[in-house]
Amino acid sequence: MRISNEILMHFRAIRKNAAEVSISDPLDAEGDGSPLTLMDVFSGEDCMIEQIDLKMQADRLYRAVEQVCDQREKQIVSLRYGLYGKRPLTQREIAAYLNISRSYVSRIEKKALSKLRSALK
Fold first, then answer.
1. Which domain holds residue 81?
2. Which family does it belong to (predicted)?
3. What is the spatial distance between Cα 45 and Cα 90, in angstroms, rounded to a whole number?
4. What CATH number does residue 92 fall under?
5. 65 neighbors 77 (Cβ within 8 angstroms)
């Protein structure tokens, strides 16, 4: 909403009459001939802002994994949750892949998640 306020303030500074500014005023026609309004721009920005926020959270998670988890924990967490472009696996699949017990996978995962929760607070 702050971005929309800034844009409206800009238009008000340009125009002498603030009543002429409306978020439903057409800015330009799109390729199909329908008018593009400020509301269209704002709704697109919300999606972009959410994507940026999601990317920042993912980067923060990856940094935490690298900083607080040992090599085995990193391996199990990345396999379990599909990090680094891997397909998420079940504990049973990870146990078979690493030739360890499922309960050992569970203990390592639990310990790693606890470390990550603490690091991300």
1. 34-120
2. Belongs to the sigma-70 factor family.
3. 37
4. 1.10.10.10
5. yes
Q: How far is CA 91 from CA 63, 86, 96, 102, 110, in A?
A: 23, 14, 9, 6, 11
| Predicted TM-score (pTM) of this structure | 0.58
In the block, residue with structure tokens 């085995």: 72
The domain tally of the chain equals: 1
CA dihedral (31, 33, 36, 37) in degrees, to 10, reads: 180
Please determine, for residue 29, whether its predicted confidence score (pLDDT) is greater than 50.
Answer: yes
How, if at all, do strands 35-37 and 26-29 pair?
antiparallel
pLDDT tens-digit map of 38-76: 666 665 555 677 778 888 888 898 999 999 999 999 999
Whole-angstrom Cα distance, residue 20 to residue 26?
12
Q: Percentage of the chain surpassing pLDDT 90?
A: 44
Can you read off the two tokens belonging to residue 56? 């920042």
CB 30 within 8 A of CB 36: yes
Distinct helix (H) and strand (E) counts, the chain? 5, 2
